[in-house]
Amino acid sequence: MNRFDDALRELGLADLQARIRRFPDATRTAVEAAEAIGCELSQICKSLIFAADGEPVLVLMDGASRVDVELVRKELGAEKVTRAKAEVVRETTGYAIGGVPPFGHRTKTRVLADRSLLGHDVVWAAAGNPHAVFPMAPKDLVTHAGATLVDVREQPRTS
Fold this sequence. Notes:
Elements lengths: L2 H8 L10 E2 L7 H8 L6 E9 L2 E8 L6 H8 L4 E3 L2 H8 L16 E5 L8 E4 L5 E5 L1 H8 L2 E3 L9
Parallel strand pairs: 2-6, 3-5, 5-8
Antiparallel strand pairs: 1-7, 2-3, 2-4, 6-7
């Protein structure tokens, strides 16, 4: 058993283990995951760790979008928000970048989920390693992650 399997049991989601899809090739990026699953890029739920004034925060974002760090900064009332370094991601979550699930982390962090995830019936998220993903209704995913719904998606630039 691994950390993610333990987390699923603790959350009462053990039945989700049967729906985890494993792939021989890594699904480390949203593009790789969408291609392997055969879904739209926006149906991938990225779990991204940022540092807000040095404190880790998890942002859940659809795979077709980028996080606007300025919107995250405003949402959190932080002075500075940056992407967390790989060692901080592993230390905080217990997982390597490319396999970070939306819940079941080593430490409790603040979680923000972009509203764009709610545009789908099902989204796919990493299941603890770069070769595995699982499907879940976005509302359930937000609930289990203990996330606050926010609008932190980078908007396309208009000229």
